[in-house]
Amino acid sequence: xxxxxxxxxxxxxxxxxxxxxxxxxxxxxxxxxxxxxxxxxxxxxxxxxxxxxxxxxxxxxxxxxxxxxxxxxxxxxxxxxxxxxxxxxxxxxxxxxxxxxxxxxxxxxxxxxxxxxxxxxxxxxxxxxxxxxxxxxxxxxxxxxxxxxxxxxxxxxxxxxxxxxxxxxxxxxxxxxxxxxxxxxxxxxxxxxxxxxxxxxxxxxxxxxxxxxxxxxxxxxxxxxxxxxxxxxxxxxxxxxxxxxxxxxxxxxxxxxxxxxxxxxxxxxxxxxxxxxxxxxxxxxxxxxxxxxxxxxxxxxxxxxxxxxxxxxxxxxxxxxxxxxxxxxxxxxxxxxxxxxxxxxxxxxxxxxxxxxxxxxxxxxxxxxxxxxxxxxxxxxxxxxxxxxxxxxxxxxxxxxxxxxxxxxxxxxxxxxxxxxxxxxxxxxxxxxxxxxxxxxxxxxxxxxxxxxxxxxxxxxxxxxxxxxxxxxxxxxxxxx
Length: 481
Description:
52% of the residues lie in helices and 12% in strands. The protein contains 16 helices and 11 strands.
């Protein structure tokens, strides 16, 4: 049985928990539906169960084992997982390889892995697609392929997030029948997140309904749970209302100084000035450091590499007479680290504006509209690419790959697999955007019109003049000292 005990979870940067005090039981040999309004935490609950996210409070037990002590790959040996986006869980070059990948990680030899994979492909009517590229399959075929992939690993439990989405009524009934057969013949415990009331009524043995904060759930026989908030708060950096052009100018000037200067003392002074500017503009230092927390590992690695490979200067640390770290090496490492932090901090200024305003500002600065539109569209896609990358990385772990324990060769193989669906998805998305632009008559007129024009207020003009002037003055002073 999977037992969720008083689990709460708050997303990073969120002010309120998306789940709070959530309690439920999901027995083996039963199909339990998880329902609730949009945003109430259903998907979050499934990610917590399979270890993609970890509870802020409370614990989750799988047959008595606390998931806090298990890696995602270890959980995957007991719990299979199918997310809402099947294309983000497919990373192999053929349908057959997609199924055999997890089986090899379980220790099956090639012949047994292929035999079992063929059996499940036949069960889900995919035998004729064995050699096909998985991302070329239809949405319904990708759903069935993922079911075959997960079930071939013969998990004790199966977690499905909106598996009927995008399926017609015939495929929905076929899916429901497959799930009932798995429950009744194999004793598998299945958790299905669904908005389809007919699907839940027809195929579920029990229901766990997640309600908004302050309300109790409405479980059908056997399970119950505590409330969860229906929405999560977001934090937003707030800067006084500047025109986008002085914001871009400030970012360029600060980044330019960071790149040109090499002395740690000058860079430290520039970092202090950047932090003071952010604080005066309404961006707290705590929020700024939160933004770069994900880069700390990269910064530490760069610092260590620079310390070790710069051989100039007096030794600070030696081994058997061989200098490992020198004074100049530490100085260079400190300069590189400070430089990157300043560039990232200065870019936070841009996060306080609306993307449409930056697009308009670039156009008013005589940048061709096509170039400005391309730049802003690419920026919009960056968060999506990051989310897709994490989804594929999780999918690799859910096939039983212990990435943290893998050899360098295996890690390179994992990175290749992660890159494949990301690149294919980016190409498809670019094609879709191009088609959408054509449908909206992009550039059908030689002169684009705008509903409004940006105007510079006195503070904007002052920054546009003062920032470059101070930058040039600072460079001259630093060079003459």
